[in-house]
Design goal:
2 helices, elongated, alpha+beta, single chain, four-stranded antiparallel sheet
Length: about 100
């Protein structure tokens, strides 16, 4: 029972730190140039995957895209609904407003 509690406590602290950092503007969303949407955010060599919603919102290795399980299943939902969703939506909204539709 103790390993479960200590693992949950660590993931809870990771999630709380990520939410605080996102709200402080420390994470920078990166644009996917293929379809002009933001799938990832970067900070100090860490990559936050936020493309597929709350079930996949977690830290990934920037080189291999391997899931690092920093938040766990419950806390990744908390990160998504508390901060990452707004970060992605705001970044996508800014990109869409800059698009120029060609006049035929």
């Amino acid at each position: 029972m103790i390993p479960f509690i200590s693992n949950f406590a660590l993931r809870f602290r990771n999630a709380r730190a990520a939410i605080r950092q996102i709200k402080n503007g420390e994470w920078e969303p990166r644009l996917n140039t293929t379809d002009n949407y933001h799938y990832t955010a970067y900070r100090c060599g860490h990559m936050l995957w936020m493309a597929n919603g709350p079930f996949f919102c977690d830290l990934k290795d920037p080189h291999s895209y391997e899931d690092l399980m920093a938040f766990g299943l419950i806390c990744r939902h908390w990160v998504w609904w508390a901060a990452a969703r707004k970060l992605k939506a705001d970044a996508d909204r800014k990109t869409r407003s800059k698009r120029k539709i060609p006049e035929l």
